[in-house]
Design goal:
mainly beta, 383 residues, rod-shaped, 27 strands
Length: 383
């Protein structure tokens, strides 16, 4: 650059002069060489050194990566801007981030730079972010900062790893459909607690000594988070039986806490006749009848009465078939019912069978029991 003087300047020149040198790089040391020239030639040179002021970094942090290492941890790594664009010593990086569930809640972290690092720094810097939400997309924005300001930003997005759901299936109901079928209906855990795509529901229950398990499967086309209701029809159940169903949701990270729901199937007609029918003749005209109910698995409802059928001659026709109510119906019935048959004829053989009755229908008849009443003295003189 030049500073020119015209012929109007006095001799000898005794005024100061200055020149503004522009388009320099920020925070850069320059050595300036100055000489004076007249018509006869140039003077010896003199040098002066100075450093330009800092400016905000002109480039965003480089090679930014965010790598999930677990369901709750992300390792964040970055490098500073290019050396020629740092424009002053970088003293920290500011990292801000938010989750897809709470975009209005901004978290902030500072990554400090060692002040003893040479300028310009080219070292890698990183920070471990923990206590994050599983299977959650996080958006990170980072800037480099020096004494003059901050750089342009770099943004990256990453999702944490899957973890087992932390909430059980919601709004679970069990609806009785028939004497052998119950419909289970459920909603998924709330979105923030699914922690990964739900792969299936497991519905389990106990029948006898056997644990029976059914599944509802979801394929990879289901959206995340799952927001639809599901149902499964559980069949081949026993009539009038209370079942407790245990339901869990499973993703690639494991299973949720369980939830239970209880329902009873509808009654059905007894599927077994009364058991252990016995008859004992007390005297020539009466017989004591003892009836034990069907086994508990085959009562299929509350036994309310027995229907007794008697065959034998001669006999009062009004007593050939009659209803025998249960005095205190309970489920399952386990007590023996006793009834005295009267108005019978001496030394006659009778065949007795019994059916069990509940609110739906009646059982098959029991195997007939044969009984002969006791003898009595002849009722007529010799003829």
């Amino acid at each position: 650059s030049f500073i020119h003087f015209d012929d109007t300047k006095t001799y000898p020149l005794d005024i100061s002069s200055q020149i503004s040198v522009s388009s320099l790089l920020p925070y850069t040391e320059y050595t300036f060489t100055i000489i004076a020239t007249n018509d006869g030639g140039s003077s010896p040179s003199v040098t002066v050194m100075d450093t330009t002021q800092q400016a905000a970094p002109a480039e965003a942090p480089q090679n930014v990566t965010a790598v999930p290492t677990s369901p709750t941890v992300i390792l964040f790594t970055c490098y500073p801007p290019s050396p020629s664009l740092q424009n002053g010593p970088i003293h920290n990086f500011t990292l801000v981030y938010y989750s897809e569930w709470n975009p209005d809640t901004i978290e902030s972290e500072t990554i400090s730079v060692d002040t003893t690092e040479p300028y310009p720094t080219m070292l890698q810097h990183q920070i471990v972010l923990s206590s994050l939400q599983p299977y959650t997309e996080y958006t990170f924005t980072i800037v480099a900062i020096n004494d003059a300001g901050q750089s342009p930003n770099t943004t990256t997005t990453v999702r944490t790893h899957t973890s087992a759901p932390t909430e059980s299936p919601q709004s679970v109901t069990a609806t009785t459909v028939s004497s052998t079928t119950i419909l289970i209906h459920m909603y998924p855990p709330s979105a923030i607690h699914q922690n990964g795509p739900i792969r299936n529901y497991t519905v389990s229950y106990t029948q006898g000594n056997e644990v029976i398990t059914s599944f509802i499967h979801f394929d990879d086309t289901e959206t995340y988070p799952l927001d639809i209701s599901s149902q499964i029809s559980v069949s081949s159940l026993l009539p009038y039986t209370e079942y407790t169903f245990t339901i869990i949701a499973t993703n690639d990270g494991g299973s949720s806490p369980s939830v239970t729901v209880t329902a009873r199937t509808d009654p059905a007609a007894p599927s077994e006749p009364p058991q252990n029918i016995t008859a004992h003749s007390n005297n020539p005209t009466t017989v004591t009848l003892s009836i034990y109910p069907p086994s508990s698995y085959h009562q299929n409802g509350i036994i309310t009465s027995y229907r007794v059928s008697i065959q034998g001659t001669p006999f009062d026709s009004s007593l050939q078939e009659f209803s025998l109510p249960i005095s205190s119906p309970v489920y399952p019935l386990s007590s023996t019912t006793t009834h005295v048959l009267s108005q019978l004829h001496a030394y006659n053989t009778y065949s007795i069978s019994v059916v069990a009755i509940n609110s739906v229908g009646k059982s098959a008849a029991s195997s007939p029991v044969s009984i002969t009443t006791l003898q009595s003295a002849p009722a007529e003189a010799p003829q």
